[in-house]
Amino acid sequence: MEKIKKDHRPLILVTNDDGVQAKGLKALVEAVRPFGDVVVIAPDSGMSGMSHAITVTRPLYLTKVLEEEGLTIFKSSGTPSDCVKLALHEVLGDKPDYLVSGINHGTNSSISMHYSGTVAGAKEGTFNAIPSIAFSLLDHSADADFSHAVNYVRQVFELVLEHGMAEGVCYNVNMPKGEIKGLRVCRQAKGNWIEGFEKRYEPGTGKPYYWMTGSYVNLDTDAEDTDEWTLDHGYAALVPFTIDPTCMETVSRLKSLGVEDRLPVSN
C-alpha cells in the first residue's frame, strides 16, 4: 500500500468506535475538514466499550472505501486502537498533526471514559505525542442530530490549533443533546455503574446466556466543577486528562514511610 504523505496542509487522522458508517463520524469529518487533509480509519462495525483493546489473536484487515481531494477513508476489522496503529505504521507516510475521535453516539463522561473505545482512540494518539481529542454527544440514537455539536468541535479544534496541547495530555469533550449553552473546562465526576446480568436462553438449544444491564450513579451530584453537572446544565464539558496514571502523592507518602528501606531486597 502506498503511504499517504502530508503536503503543506495539516494532516488530521480521524477514528471512532461506532463504525465507519456512523453518523457521528461523518459529522466529525465535516467539522475538521476545513482545517486540513483528513484520513479516516474506523472500525468496520461497532466497537463500543472496547476501551484500549488491541487485536493480537486474529488477522487485521484494512480496506479503502473512499478517496477524494483532501479526504481518504478506510475501514478496518480492528478496534479503535488498532485503527490508529494501522494508520501510523501502514497508511500514513508521516505522523499526523492531529487526531480526533468520535463523535460518539452517547456520553463518555465520568467513569465511562475508561470503557470507551472513542476515548481510547484519542489516547493512542496521545501515546504517540499527537495532539488528540475525543468527542462524544449525549444521544445514543443512530440518527442523532449533530448539527450543534459540529460547531463546538470546530471551536475546540481551533483552540488547539491556536494554543497547542501539552504532551501527554488528552482532551475528552462531551456535549449535551440539542442546543449547547457554552463550553466549560472541568474534572471527571466521581461515579460508578451498578451492573447486573439478565439471563436469557437460546431458542432451540435452550443454552443460557447473559446480557449486561446497569445504571450510572453519580457520586458528585452537588459538584459544579464536574463533567456530569456541566452536561446536565446544557454545557459542553472539556476534561483534560493525562496518560500517566501514577499517583505522585502516594509515591511521596510511601517514600516518607520508608517503605523502600523496610522491604527486603533479594540478592
Structure report:
Its cofactor is a divalent metal cation. Its main location: cytoplasm. Keywords: Cytoplasm, Hydrolase, Metal-binding, Nucleotide-binding. This protein has 267 residues and is an alpha/beta fold. It has a single domain, classed as Survival protein SurE-like phosphatase/nucleotidase (Stationary-phase Survival Protein Sure Homolog, Chain: A). It is 26% helix and 29% strand. It is built from seven helices and eleven strands. The chain has a nine-stranded mixed β-sheet. A two-stranded antiparallel sheet has the order 9-10. α2 packs parallel to α3. The chain is globular, with a radius of gyration of 20 Å. The mean pLDDT is 92.
According to CATH, what is the class? Alpha Beta
Please give the alpha-carbon distance between the first and last residues. Answer: 52 Å
Name the average pLDDT: 92
CATH topology: Stationary-phase Survival Protein Sure Homolog, Chain: A
| Percent of residues in β-strands | 25-35%
Strand order of the largest sheet: 3-4-2-1-5-6-7-11-8
CATH architecture descriptor name: 3-Layer(aba) Sandwich
Low-confidence stretches: none
CATH homology group: Survival protein SurE-like phosphatase/nucleotidase
**CA-atom Rg in angstroms:** 20 Å
> How many domain modules?
1
| Structural class estimated from helices and strands | alpha/beta
How many beta-strand runs? 11
Please trace the helix and strand order, writing H or E for each element.
EHEEEHEHEHEEEEHEHH
Sheet having the most strands:
9 strands, mixed
Q: How helical, in percent, are the residues?
A: 25-40%
- The quaternary structure here is single chain
| Gross geometry | globular
> How many H/I helices?
7
Main location: cytoplasm
GO molecular function: 3'-nucleotidase activity; 5'-nucleotidase activity; exopolyphosphatase activity; metal ion binding; nucleotide binding
Protein name: 5'-nucleotidase SurE
Enzyme class: hydrolase
